[in-house]
Amino acid sequence: MIDDDFDKIVRRMFEQLFNNTTGARLPTNSQMRFNMPTGVPNKENVMASPRVERIDLEDKQLIIIDNISEDSFPSARVIGRELHIKLHDNLNETILELPYAADVEESSILHQNGIVEITIVKAVRNETSSDTNEQILRIETRE
Predict the structure, then answer these.
(1) Does the domain spanning 28-35+45-139 belong to CATH 3.20.20.105?
(2) Residues 107, 119: Cα–Cα separation, whole Å
(3) Are 82 and 71 in contact (CB under 8 A)?
(4) Which residues contact 85 (CB under 8 A, 6 or more apart)?
(5) Strands 135-136 and 115-121, how do they pair?
C-alpha cells in the first residue's frame, strides 16, 4: 500500500519534470507572480534570483525554492488562495496562487542549506481552511 502510494508520487513528479522540460505548457492553475526589484539587472541580481519548483501531489503541494542565503529568515503566509513568501527582507514578496484552500495548521515552511521547502496541505476542514483563516505558516525544523 505504501509502496503503491510512493510509486504514484514519484511517477507524477517525473511526469511533471519531463513534461515541463519538453516545452509543454503549465496547467492554468499554476500561475506565479513575482514582485521583482526595480532597476537595471546586473550580474549580482541575476545570480541572486531564487529558482522556484512546484510539485503537485494529491493532497499537498511542495514548493521548493533554492539559491537562498543562509543568513535570511524566510517566512510565508496564506491569504485565501494565495501564498505570500518573503525570502530576503521585508520589501520583496513573492506571491503564488494556490489551486485550492490550504490547511493553515498543517502547512509549513523549512529553510535548510540554502533551500526553502514549503508544504501546502489541502484543507479538509473549514476551521483550518485558508479561505476562512489568514495565518503565517509554522516553521518546521529537521535535525
Answers:
(1) no
(2) 5
(3) no
(4) 65, 74, 75, 76, 93, 94, 95, 96, 116, 118
(5) unpaired
Q: Which of these, 49, 65, 73, lies nearest to 120 by C-alpha position?
A: 65
Q: Is 138 helix (H, G, I), strand (E, B) or coil?
A: strand
Closest CA to 110 of 78, 59, 62: 62
Whole-number Cα distances in Å, 38 to 23, 28, 44, 92: 29, 27, 14, 10
Cell match 505570500: residue? Answer: 84
Residue at 98: amino acid letter: L
Give CA torsion, residues 10, 11, 12, 16, to 10 deg. 100
**How many CB atoms within 10 Å of residue 116?**
22
Q: With H, G, I as helix, E, B as strand and everything else as coil, classify residue 66.
A: strand
Q: What is the pLDDT averaged over residues 92-116?
A: 89
Q: Find the largest Cα–Cα distance for the chain.
A: 53
Task: State the Cα–Cα distance between residues 124 and 55, nearest whole angstrom.
Answer: 20
What is the spatial distance between Cα 18 and Cα 20, in angstroms, rounded to a whole number?
5
Sign of CA dihedral 21, 24, 25, 31: negative
Residue-wise pLDDT tens digits, 51-75:
889 999 889 999 998 878 777 888 8
